[in-house]
Amino acid sequence: MRSWVRFAAGGLVVLLLAALAARWLANDYLFFAAFVVLQFVVLATAWNILGGYGGYVNFGTGAFVATGAYAAVALQKLADLPLPLLVLAGTAAGAVLGSALGLLTLRLRGIYFAIATLAITIILETVVLNWDYVGGARGITLDRPHEDPFFGTYNRMLVVLMAGMAVVAVGIARWVGVSAFGRALSAIRDSEDAAEACGVPTLRRKVQAATLSGAMMGAAGAPLPLYLSFVDHTAAFGLNYAVSAMAMPMIGGTGHWIGPVIGAVLLGTAQQAVTVTISSEVNVLITGLLLIGFVVAAPRGILGWLGR
Question: Are the C-beta atoms of 245 and 47 separated by less than 8 Å?
Answer without folding.
Answer: yes
